[in-house]
Write a structure and sequence with these properties.
The chain is elongated. Helix content is 69%, strand content 0%. The chain is mainly α and 59 residues long. It has one domain.
Amino acid sequence: MKLITRFELASKNENELHYALRLAFNELAKSDAGSPKRRNALASIENIQNELNSRAPCP
């Protein structure tokens, strides 16, 4: 899996972010432990979650 950066995610809407999160999670589930694919999937998931959290309304 290609690493998805915060820069790439900034131009996506919330539905696209949730879709990307699902794809990254599926790639993570299929990857081998310690593989570059797994590291990229984990980093992408973290980037997507950070982007979603940055858009969440503050209470």
